[in-house]
Amino acid sequence: MCRSEKTNYVDRTSQAIYSFRANYGTLANLTNQGIYFFVSPYELFIGLRYTRAKKRNHFISFISLISLLGITLGMTALITVMSVMNGFQKEVRARILGVASHVQINGFDNRLSNWQALAEEASRHPSVEGAAPFVNAQGMVSYDQVVHGAIVRGILPDTENHVADFSDMMVSGELENLIPGDFGIVIGMELARSLGAFRGDKIVLISPQGQVTPAGILPRLKQFTVVGIFEAGHFEYDSGLVLIHMADAQKLYRMDDHVSGVRLKLSDMFLAPKVVNDLIHSLTGPYYVTDWTQQHANYFRAIQIEKRMLSLILALIIAVAAFNIVSTLVMAVTDKQSDIAILRTLGASPRSIMKIFIVQGTFIGVAGTILGVTGGILLAYNVGEVVAFIEWIFSVEFLSNEIYYISKIPTDPQTTDIVTVAVVSFILSLLATIYPSYRASRVNPAEALRYE
User: Fold this and answer.
1) Taking Cα atoms as reference points, which of 353, 383, 338, 388 lies closest to residue 6?
2) Distance of CA 289 to the CA centre of its chain
3) Which of 5, 123, 237, 372 could form a disulfide with 72 if both were Cys (CB 3.0 to 4.6 A apart)?
4) What biological-process GO terms show up in the record (predicted)?
5) Which long-range contacts (CB under 8 A, 24 or more apart) does 422-428 make?
6) Contact 238/188 with Cβ under 8 angstroms?
7) How far apart are CA 109 and CA 88, in angstroms?
8) Residue environment code for 286-314, b if the CB has 16+ CB neighbours within 10 A, otherwise e
9) Counting Cβ atoms within 10 Å, is residue 370 exposed (0-12), middle (13-18) or buried (19+)?
């Protein structure tokens, strides 16, 4: 900086400070006001002024822009990925709980008598919306020399609709076609494909409970007619679950009037652990109570761990962008040493200098956070359309209907995740300003102006 430029800069800075003195008193009083307000007006003015580059330091402005874009892209990616993970978790949970139950009451020996009274007593709980008995057993189904293992569930079609969504999953036939004594059966889509069976075909259900004969112990066999096919969208159920009428199941498995248990549907699935605890203390009898969080704990825990790991990896992008703020401010401090010296000679305190550069770094962090949250929300709510557009452009299909049961990318943006990401991003940006700002406050005016 030549002598004339330096003189003009000092004059402009002095005029700006004198105008502030007219409104806020002396610079010392201004600094004292900063005790009550984190940043005083003149500190905010100079800090924001430093965010705009001069002709000779465009590189610093470029690094600032890169830091801002890094925070923006990192937050956009993180919010979008967390929303998609929430969507997949919600979709899988809905498909599983459309077949399974929120709460299940079982007999200790898989036999429960007087289930009507138990269902009535459990239904008195304010969170219970429906109850249905069931018979649960293992078996094998055979058709045209093809044999598959299966879980056999005996149900009452009228009450089953109160706790499950099988009526909405039927792709052929109706659940009401299960009539006691007719020995009808409803099977999953994948099991039907494996067996090569269609509606109206007769398949054999083999019970593991043996029948003693002079020739030895033989398994119990019964021919059933396929009266319906369902598709739950979950391979475990579509390939290994069959439904028969509860009366037919009681006959086949020699359960007389007993059932395996009672299934409950709740108004809020996330209240299941609390409801289980309440039922354990209110119900009396030889049975145990479980809920969906226990039955599928490993599956949902794996999804949660995957979500956390992806979030941690993507959060590193924001951390890298925050470190870019450090390099930006360090270069800015080096470039502005003469300015800092002039401010110090005019009465600015080290704390005031530190706040000026904190304002500069915080501005980058706040701007990046606002843009990142905006971009993340927009992309999260429209990720399906974006993916469809990419598939159309490149003629590819990311989630084929022939391979994946979930053929569209689900999304579920949650306010908690968005707020958490924004707060973490802001805190990282704020922390990144501490060292460069502290270094600026330690600049010695005499040393900075020695060679000017």
Assistant:
1) 338
2) 28
3) 372
4) lipoprotein localization to outer membrane; lipoprotein transport
5) 422/75, 422/369, 422/372, 422/373, 424/315, 424/318, 425/71, 425/74, 425/75, 425/318, 425/322, 425/365, 425/368, 425/369, 425/372, 426/365, 426/366, 426/369, 428/318, 428/319, 428/322, 428/365
6) yes
7) 36
8) ebebebbeebbeeeeeebeeebeebbeeb
9) middle
Q: Which residues contact 231 (CB under 8 A, 6 or more apart)?
A: 169, 171, 188, 189, 238
In the block, residue with structure tokens 């929120």: 102
Q: Tell me, what's the pLDDT at 348?
A: 82
pLDDT along the chain (452 residues), means of 10: 50 50 43 48 76 61 81 90 87 82 87 88 91 92 91 92 88 91 93 93 86 65 93 86 94 89 90 90 82 82 82 83 82 80 81 85 88 93 87 78 66 90 89 86 73 58
Reduce the DSSP state of residue 281 to 3 states and report it: helix
**Helices vs. strands in the chain: H and E counts, helices first:** 19, 10
CA-to-CA dists, residue 287 to 105, 113, 290, 296, angstroms: 7, 10, 10, 20
- Residue 185 near residue 205 (C-beta atoms within 8 A): yes
Q: Distance (Å, rounded) from C-alpha 140 to C-alpha 185?
A: 13
| pLDDT for position 110 | 82
Q: Residue 299 corresponds to which tokens in the numbers above?
A: 């599956």
Give the integer Cα–Cα distance in Å for 178 and 249.
12
Closest CA to 43 of 445, 406, 446, 340: 340
Neighbours of 382 (CB within 10 A): 14
In 10 A of CB 366, how many CB atoms?
17
| Predicted local confidence at residue 184, as pLDDT | 94
Expressed in angstroms, the distance from the first to the final Cα of the chain is: 7
Q: Which residues contact 203 (CB under 8 A, 6 or more apart)?
A: 141, 142, 143, 185, 187, 195, 197, 223, 224, 226
Query: H or E segment at 323?
Result: helix 297-335
Query: What is the C-alpha separation between 38 and 168, in angstroms, rounded?
Result: 59
Output phi, psi for 156, to 5 deg. -105, 115
Do 315 and 71 form a contact (C-beta atoms < 8 A)? Answer: no
Q: So what's the pLDDT on residue 31?
A: 40
Residue 252 sits at the vertex; the CA angle it makes with 249 and 254, to the nearest 5 degrees, is: 95
Domain ranges of the chain: 3-90+301-449, 102-292
pLDDT at 379: 93
